[in-house]
Write a structure and sequence with these properties.
This protein starts with a helix and ends with a strand. The longest helix is centred in the C-terminal third of the chain and has 20 residues. It is elongated and about 90 Å long. The chain has about 650 residues and is α/β, with parallel strands linked by helices. The protein has four domains: about 120 residues, Quinone Oxidoreductase, Chain A, domain 1; about 140 residues, NAD(P)-binding Rossmann-like Domain (Rossmann fold, 3-Layer(aba) Sandwich), CATH 3.40.50; about 130 residues, Rossmann fold (3-Layer(aba) Sandwich), CATH 3.40.50.720; about 180 residues, Dihydrodipicolinate Reductase, domain 2 (2-Layer Sandwich), CATH 3.30.360.
Length: about 650
């Protein structure tokens, strides 16, 4: 099983949400298109205002999955871009990411002049490694099962190229190394077999180094690795900075005095070796396809087309200037005010990630009268896939195509948190109703600007995706206590589960942190259950690197008190949410949206539910409200919920209660 963690997650969702809903989400995810490729080269056509390292017209090599994709136009962060020397062709520069991967393997092996280094696996990366090691002054041994790969390795300077099946393989290696064995082995093979790591141990000298660049079995045999005291290392992609969002996405470089070889500096080094003719790709590039014939390239890779291949290039031809900007969808204008002619059930959707396609769009699609007009996503391939799957009329990667369409009456926003407030403001200014996923804003200034803009346009609805209050279990609990005239106590326990500290939601600038990004759900639910507004908050936090594991107390205007235990240090497979309400000689307990236990004067009733958290009911309520005067959630309530998260942050800072 390749990803048991994902299997466990799916099984947990089946328990919580049911088989059919979970299956639909999984199928939507598996059926979504994805951009291919992670290594490309081309010419800069546009540069962000805060970038000084590059100019329009520069020839560059680009790296990164999701960035350097197979596309005519790509948008790439600066640390994943390197200038191409004048005497290096773009065809050769397109290999830069692969070159950096190979080069990082060399750096992990740390070869010295004159050492004997073995490369196991003589595919594309292996052929690059041979040349890099020769440029480093090493004696190189190559091993593969393919005779063509062995022959090619010899043309690249491999001193001893052998077949893995040769009976005298070990003897030849020992003779080549004067009886000592290889100083280091770099494995670039791709196989489920454990043979590469076992064979490496057998032909190594004492205290040699084994570096894994490829993907093979890694069940290390203890005896040879222990007896020779071998060092085993993994090479992580193409250098320091890989998977670090601060480096890759935000452009924060590592000081060269502390980290000599980063991803970008490895890319530059490979390009320099190409410029110095120390690396040759002439025998590695076996096929070049114009993009119009790109399908043929994949037929080679899948084996449908039977030809030997190593390096395959896709050529996009001469760049056309008209391609720089996304073509705008023509807005319909005839002088009539937009809100007068826009149909509120004509929907524009901005942000089409997993949550949107799993919970929002499917429920929206099933509502009578709703017309899915335009879906917008940062990646065009995702937008097009969602269009095809759910029946939108158009797909775009340009937000203005949604906002400028005067026939669209309502905009749904499900982008990353730091973009919510700006998009809400723009949608309101474009005279459109707005449904925005939580949070409404991640800072107080943006929140107040939304309030000001909404007050200018009272005919427009703004709703934040606080879905819990619409779920059947929570509605049942509210009804049970609604007639009470006395305050109640609400205890909300959330087993949130851990997230990596570098997850985008943990970033204060992008996600706002888990407090602002998720705890707002539970504050809104407490508002709904108590029928009152928060007036004061106080919070404590268990010591952690980021703001999670929170214990929060909320005083409400009617005297009720809500407590939230938002914990990320428990068993993530345990049910997530539990609510307990005490008041008026009654008790109600909800267990993860599956059951509600109601107790009064010793009589106990248990109601069972399907685990739904109110996403369908929430969307239905919002669409219904577009034709009425009543909002499903008053904007004032949404603002208080969001403001409460800001005050909770302050309380953690000061150690004191904070008034709203």
């Amino acid at each position: 099983m390749a990803r048991p963690d994902l299997v466990k997650l799916v099984l947990k969702q089946v328990k919580e949400q049911g088989l059919l809903e979970t299956a639909q989400r999984v199928f939507n995810k598996l059926g979504a298109d994805a951009a291919m490729g992670y290594s490309s080269a081309g010419v800069v056509v546009e540069v962000a205002d805060d970038i000084s390292e590059f100019r329009v017209g520069d020839r560059v090599a680009c790296a990164g999955g999701g960035y350097a994709s197979h596309a005519e136009l790509v948008v790439v962060p600066k640390n994943l871009v390197a200038k191409v020397p004048d005497n290096v062709s773009l065809s050769d520069a397109a290999y830069t990411t692969l070159g950096a991967i190979a080069l990082q393997g060399v750096r992990q092996a740390a070869p010295t002049l004159g050492e004997s280094i073995m490369v196991i696996g003589l595919g594309l990366l292996g052929q690059l490694l041979i040349q890099l090691l020769k440029a480093n002054g090493c004696r190189v041994i190559g091993v593969d099962i393919n005779p063509d790969a062995i022959a090619l390795a010899k043309t690249h300077g491999c001193d001893l190229a052998l077949s893995r099946s040769e009976d005298s393989l070990k003897e030849q290696v020992m003779a080549f190394t004067n009886g000592y064995g290889a100083d280091a082995v770099i494995i670039t093979a791709s196989t489920s077999s454990n043979d590469p790591v076992e064979f490496a141990a057998n032909i190594m000298r004492d205290r040699g180094r084994v570096v894994m660049v490829g993907v093979t079995g890694m069940n290390l045999p203890r005896t040879p690795y222990y007896m020779k005291e071998l060092e085993f290392k993994l090479s992580r992609s193409y250098g320091a900075g890989r998977y670090d969002t601060h480096y890759e996405e935000k452009g924060i470089d590592y000081p060269i005095g502390y980290v000599r070889w980063t991803e970008n500096r490895n890319m530059q080094a490979f390009l320099q070796l190409l410029a110095e003719k120390k690396i040759s790709l002439s025998n590695i590039t076996t096929h070049i396809f114009p993009i119009e014939q790109g399908e043929e390239a994949y037929k080679l890779i899948t084996g449908e087309r039977k030809e030997r291949y190593i390096g395959i290039l896709l050529d996009y031809g001469e760049f056309q200037e008209k391609s720089v900007h996304t073509e705008r969808l023509a807005p319909q204008r005839n002088g009539v005010p937009a809100h007068a002619k826009a149909n509120p059930k004509r929907i524009g959707f901005i942000g089409a990630g997993s949550f949107a396609t799993g919970y929002l769009i499917p429920n929206l699609k099933n509502i009578d009268g709703v017309e899915l007009v335009t879906v917008c996503n940062a990646t065009g391939i995702t937008a097009e896939s969602v269009k095809q799957t759910f029946g939108f009329k158009r797909a775009t990667s340009n937000v203005e195509d949604v906002l400028s369409d005067e026939t669209i009456g309502t905009v749904f926003i499900a982008t990353r948190h730091n973009t919510h407030a700006e998009l809400v403001l723009k949608a309101l200014q474009a005279e459109k109703h707005v449904f925005v996923e939580k949070p409404l804003a991640i800072d107080e200034g943006s929140l107040m600007r939304i309030v000001e803009e909404a007050q200018k346009r009272p005919h427009l609805k703004v709703m934040t995706g606080f879905n819990r209050r619409f779920s059947q279990p929570v509605v049942t609990m509210r009804s049970y206590f609604k007639a009470l005239l006395e305050p109640i106590s609400v205890q909300y326990r959330v087993n949130a589960g851990p997230l990596p500290p570098d997850h985008w939601t943990q970033d204060p600038e992008e996600g706002g942190g888990r407090l602002i990004g998720e705890v707002c759900h539970f504050i809104d639910t407490i508002q709904y259950l108590t029928g009152s507004e928060p007036v004061r908050v106080y919070a404590e936090m268990l010591p952690t690197k980021v703001r999670e594991n929170l214990l929060i107390t909320i005083r409400l205007a009617n005297g009720s008190v809500g407590t939230i235990q938002y914990l990320c240090n428990g068993d993530k497979l345990y049910p997530k949410e539990r609510i307990e309400i005490f008041g008026g000689n009654r008790i109600a307990i909800m267990e993860n949206f599956k059951t509600v236990t109601l107790s009064e004067q010793g009589a106990t009733r248990v109601r069972e539910f399907n685990g739904g958290k109110g996403h369908r009911e929430e969307v239905e309520a919002f669409i219904a409200s577009l034709e009425s005067e009543v909002a499903p959630i008053a904007l004032y309530s949404q603002v208080l919920t969001t403001l409460s998260t800001f005050r909770i942050n302050q309380s953690i800072n000061t150690g004191l209660p904070e008034d709203l």
